[in-house]
Design a protein that fits this description.
The complex is a heterodimer of chains A (238) and B (183). Chain A is mostly helical. Chain A contains 6 helices and 4 strands. Chain A has one domain. A two-stranded antiparallel ribbon of chain A has the order 1-4. Chain B has one domain. Helices cover 86% and strands 0% of the residues of chain B. The relative contact order of chain B is 0.02. The chains are: A mainly alpha (238), B mainly alpha (183).
């Protein structure tokens, strides 16, 4: 499991907090540089007729903007930069992980959990800020017979509390499982040698393609769920 | 070959367990703090770069394009309207010119017809007067001729009567007798 190993590059300590610059930090910084560099570079000409790079930037912008607008309505557009940042950051971290030898930041549960916890805390704060104590009605769905409430309310409450776990484990498990699979089959290729290694090698090629799809899909799912949770906080719909 | 696979699986699995502590590196609490610190730092930096610089620029370009397309469509609509108006004006002018032309032609025709009528009336008048004159002349000639006929008849009659009676009868006398017959 060395590909998931954290390597400490520059030891750093800020007010007693361990802030060592690790390989994970390095790839986070690389991702930030790539995203900012790409988006700012691609839009530099502000062309009326976009070239390829500008099209990609505009496409991603409109894709997430439409997602936010459809889920949250026009008032939800103030959360658009936040949602967009979550999407491109996770997507880029996932995709960088597909480069051989690169570190996959999102294959660490603490990272995905931090993302999910940020979303959960933000959603909960927004919910209470907008609806006050009425936000608790989220746990009492409309049209449920009163005698079901003792069962429904704990279930709803539990599902709400478990959100950051399900939200983060989904991403973490997918990223880690995919990379572990590739590693195991890579081991097969070496182990079976020139004679038998071709079958696992072919599988690996196909599986790499699948993993790239998964990298995109998991970033997308994480973002869609963020929008759905935000919608709960803003409109309290189920 | 098939039988050899489990051995390779074991070897591969061994290869994956070269980690330092043996367990999953993801579950080492000592690594949590630096990851969280750097994640928070990079996320905030990325958020501000995107929210302040990149996204407004992209949004502007998209908005600008939308506006431009809208404007162009409106301009096209306006041009179309102008064209329609110009076409209508042209057609109106054309029909007016046509009307005017036909009016002028009619006027000219009427004028010419008038002139012709006048000319004809004039000529007819002249002809009529000439005809009258001629008729008058004819009447004069006729009456003259008739008068001559009486003379001749009287002379002839006097000659005939003279021959018959064997005495001279003056034409005046014959005329006296003939006069009532001639009248």
């Amino acid at each position: 499991m060395e590909q998931f190993e954290i390597e400490r590059i520059i030891p750093l300590d800020i007010f007693g907090i361990d802030a060592t610059f690790t390989n994970a930090s390095l790839f986070m910084v690389i991702a930030v540089a790539l995203i900012s560099g790409f988006l700012i570079f691609s839009i530099r000409r502000r062309a009326l007729v976009p070239d390829r790079l500008q099209s990609v930037a505009e496409l991603s912008y409109e894709y997430i903007a439409n997602m936010v607008r459809e889920n949250l309505g026009e008032e939800g557009m103030k959360f658009f930069p936040w949602v967009f940042t979550i999407f491109v950051f996770i997507l880029t971290l996932n995709l960088i992980g597909m480069v051989p030898g690169a570190f996959t930041v999102t294959s660490h549960i603490i990272v995905t959990f931090a993302f999910a916890a940020m979303v959960w805390i933000a959603v909960t704060l927004i919910g209470f800020a907008r609806h006050g104590i009425g936000y608790l009605k989220l746990f009492m769905p409309d049209g449920v017979p009163w005698w079901l409430l003792p069962i429904i309310v704990p279930i709803e409450l539990l599902s709400y509390l478990i959100r950051p776990v399900s939200h983060s484990v989904r991403l973490f498990a997918n990223m880690m499982a995919g990379h572990t699979m590739l590693k195991v089959f890579g081991g097969f290729v070496v182990g079976l040698g020139v004679l038998g290694g071709w079958a696992p090698l072919a599988f690996m090629v196909a599986f790499t393609g699948l993993e790239i799809v998964v990298a995109f899909l998991q970033a997308l799912i994480f973002t869609v769920l963020t929008c759905i949770y935000l919608n709960d906080a803003l409109h309290m719909h189920h | 070959m098939i039988a050899a696979i489990p051995a390779f699986v074991a070897a591969a699995a061994e290869a994956t367990h070269e980690g330092k502590s043996g367990g999953l590196p993801q579950l080492n609490p000592a690594d949590f703090s630096p990851q969280l610190v750097w994640l928070a730092l990079t996320f905030v930096v990325l958020y501000f770069i995107l929210a302040r610089v990149a996204l407004p620029r992209i949004g502007e370009v998209i908005e600008e394009r939308k506006d431009r397309v809208q404007r162009d469509l409106q301009a096209a609509e306006r041009f179309k309207q102008e064209t329609d108006e110009a076409l209508a004006a042209y057609e109106k002018a054309l029909s007016e010119a046509r009307q005017k032309a036909s009016g002028m032609a009619k006027e000219m025709r009427d004028k010419l017809a008038d002139e012709t009528d006048k000319e004809r009336a004039n000529v007819e008048g002249q002809l009529a007067s000439k005809l009258g004159e001629a008729e008058a002349r004819i009447a004069v000639t006729k009456s003259k001729a008739l008068a001559s006929v009486n003379e001749i008849a009287a002379e002839t009659a006097s000659a005939v009567v003279g021959k018959l009676l064997g005495e001279d009868v003056s034409p005046a006398e014959v005329k006296k007798f003939l006069q009532p017959a001639a009248e």
